[in-house]
Amino acid sequence: MKEIAGYLPAIGQEEFEYKTLTFTGKHEKLEVQVPLLTKEQMDKVVEKVTLASASILKSMTIADIVQIIDKVIEQLLDRTNGYRQKAEKLLPIVTGYDGELVRIGLTSYLKTFRKQNLQRFLIEDFGNPLLLDDFQPRSKRGFSKAVGPNVTAQIWAGNVPALPIWSLISSLLVKSGSIGKVPSAEPLFAGWFANMLVEVEPKLADCLAIVWWKGGDEERERHLFQQADVVLAYGGNESLESMKNRVPITTRFLPFGHKISFGIVSNMSLDSRKAWRTIHHAAFDVIRYDQQGCYSPHVFYVQKGGNVSPREFARFLAHELEAFEMRYPRRALSIEEGAKLVEWRQKEELSLFSNREKEVLGESSGAWTVVFTENEGELSPSCLNRVIKVVEINELDEVIPLIESSRSYLQTVGIAVAPNELFALAELLGKAGVTRITGLGSMTSPEAGWHHDGRFNLLDLVHMVDIEHSAEEYAEGLASYVD
To answer: What is the pTM of this model?
Structure first.
């Protein structure tokens, strides 16, 4: 099979070079052609997007933009839609994830961008979304308007299918043109989304471009960054640090690097009636996209004193992971991933000689591993791909000193705690550096308007223009009706 990825605005009679990325699924091979632009072609694309952003996007109302996005999302949620069918067929080949898991994940993710949720995005960041359309009166007197960039350069990671549409939609909501670089690991969805936007509203044809170049091509990155107003990038911390050095000092750089997440389970959630639900949700958070997202758990801290002990929690969790494996098999691992998994598991097994209370569950060649321990609680990353550690704790607040060394990397905590425990624990976690607290089973599905890594999705993209009261007063004094 063959598929052309990306999206390009019309820049005249140009011959674009395409590179072929090859993906091998269980039964089929897929060749994806991605557009690789020369410097001259990139210059023309940037010029086109800049002009269209200023003349088209910024002349549209925010209500119109929300309506367009909602219509595209509605189509993508329809399983009879051609693009949705391509996504369900091709994304499992490209990513290696189980087809049914991709289908469920897409539906859950896309619902985040329906009209009502987009309105929540806007209200969360701006209070009054009309700030994006016109100057609005402020309580401090005077007026303000939010102005988005003409061009936002976006560098995406490919660890989760369809991830790029989060930042693409964010840039559209602030009326910014976008030039996005798709990752080699998942080069398809961003281009499909761009094509659908243009089909719904042809006026957007020149407002965005979806391109590709090989990761680490510093010359191409630097060339684009010099022409962008904002650079938004996902990736590893080292690559982001290197990228930062190529962004001009006058250009806003918004990096989203590696983070680590974990779960906390109160003994209140482990009585005979509630335990299975708690464990099932914990297992789902582990298997969803094989822990590739920043919001996936690496450790579960489980409190003693429930009808189900932390050790039993680990054993039941292993049972749930085995059941999920039969329904949603883990993707095939690369040689490097397989080697890391074996190395990680061997290290844990060797530690059994010095820690007799520890357990390592799951076969060495299996698709999941659960490690139970009572006294190795400091938060550290697993090797991913359905590998999880369960740590026994006496009190919930014992978690705080265990996560201190990871403060700058903390993101999501999935919790199963009682109402009287929630806010006291949240206060401690927030002070420790955690930026998102959610229920078990929802770790991999952030709500609309969440503050990504504690920041704003939309406010960070705009600059505010203020008309101070003195300017209004001065202008009033020069009105034709003033004697």
So the answer is: 0.94
CA distance linking residue 68 with residue 148, whole number of Å: 18
Question: Which tens digits make up the pLDDT trace of 295-336?
Answer: 999 999 999 999 999 999 999 999 999 999 999 999 999 999
pLDDT tens digits for range 261-293 = 999 999 999 998 899 999 999 999 999 999 999
